[in-house]
From TrEMBL:
Gene3D superfamilies: 2.30.30.50. Transmembrane segments: none annotated. Residues 12-21 have a biased composition (Pro residues). It comes from Rubrimonas cliftonensis. Pfam families: NHase_beta_C. This is Nitrile hydratase.
Amino acid sequence: MAPRAEALPEVGPAPPPPYPAGRPRFSPGDAVKVSFRDGPGHIRTPWYIRGRTGRVERVCGAFPNPEELAARRDGLPALPLYRVRFALAALWGAGAAQDTLDVELYEHWLEPADAA
C-alpha cells in the first residue's frame, strides 16, 4: 500500500519571545517529521505520531530532557521543546480538514520534513 500524503495544518502567527537561550533548530511554521524510532527507557513521544509530518506551532522554551530525568540523570543540557500541529485526517484518515492535534515534542525527535 502506498503511503498516504499528509495534509499539513496551518499555524497562526508566532508567539512573542522569549525563546530558549540556545537557538532552536526550527521556527513556527516549519514542516517537521517526527523520528520513527524506539529505544529503552521512558520515551515521551507518542507512537502514533512517529514518522508523521506536522508543522511547528510554537517554540515553548528549553527544558531538561525528560527521558534523561527518568533515568535519574540531570537532563542537561536543556533541549528546545516545540508544539507541533498535526492534521487529524493525516494521522487517522478521518476528521474534518480543520481538525488538528497539538503535541509537544523535544528537538531530538524532530527532523526537517524534506529530509529523506
